[in-house]
Amino acid sequence: MSVAGPLILVAGGLLLGGIPYLVTSSYVMHLIILSGIYIIFALSYDIVVGYLGMLSLAHPAFYGVGAYTSVLLVMRLEVPFLLALAVAGVLASIVALIVGYPALSLSYHSFAIVTLAFTLIVRIVWINWEGLTNGPMGIPGVPRPRLELPFLGRIDVETSTGYYYFILVLVVLTGLFVYGMIHSRVGRALVSIRENEILAETLGVNAFKYRMMAFAVGAFFAGIAGSFTAHYIAFVGPEFTDFYYITMLLIMVILGGSGTLHGVILGAIVFTFVPEYLRITPEFRDVIYGVILVVTIVFVPGGIGGRLNDLMRSRKTPSHGAAGNR
Length: 326
Fold this sequence. Notes:
Blueprint: H1 4-22, H2 26-51, H3 59-76, H4 81-103, H5 108-128, H6 130-133, E1 139-140, E2 146-149, E3 153-156, H7 160-182, H8 185-195, H9 197-202, H10 207-233, E4 235-236, H11 244-256, H12 261-278, H13 282-299, H14 303-325
Antiparallel strand pairs: 1-4, 2-3
Helix pairs in contact: 2-7, 2-10, 2-11, 2-12, 3-4, 3-10, 4-10, 8-10, 11-12, 11-13, 11-14, 12-14
């Protein structure tokens, strides 16, 4: 039995656990924490876009629903943060089910338009419902997460190190859940629907049920990401539904490799750091994003994850051939 896999896991775990002690720059640490948020956000988007094959433009709305829900519960009802975090994800899922029920029975293009309209409506509501959301000014002064854990007591997450370990736990849990889902019967059903819906339904797959399931799960993790973000930056506002997030998510998923867990994670990390360097040329940033998307789709349609998979297969092929010649 090969020991390479466990050794890599142990080394990776030690490296991730030691990052706060290796990184001395607070700015780089901030980018690493943002990377964790965007990994969760991108993985949630990849469930819908990569595995289900539906172009949803509602993800910023779910992100915002999670952020506003968590902030309002903590600040106005004094709900414990962990409960507010969970409710944020659940409420985002419920909203997704309400929107998805009519939208997921429509055609591919109509679904995209409905989700676009939903995000616009949500943004308008947040801007104009000033009694609840404080309108365009948003809600500042969002409190830091306070965790009440069994045996550990109360933990106030206030430092970058605390935020790092908190988002690391959330990333690991999200990654394990997505990995388990895509390797389960549900994941196989989603891929079969994406590849050939008619054939999948012929084989007994209820396409509408699995679409609803994927849409709700994706919204749940988007809500979790939104909740964490609001309590990390201590602010929530209509900016959470900005369409910049759609552009960013598409680049992360497509460049990383839609339908590949490791590729999307790499894409999220790369496109958390790259925009920081593009701040020196903000007038060309969107143009550069567009060029990157086009170049990736034309020349690397499988993204980083697809290319890595090809390399691994090409390394295995000669050994198989050699074994066959013996």
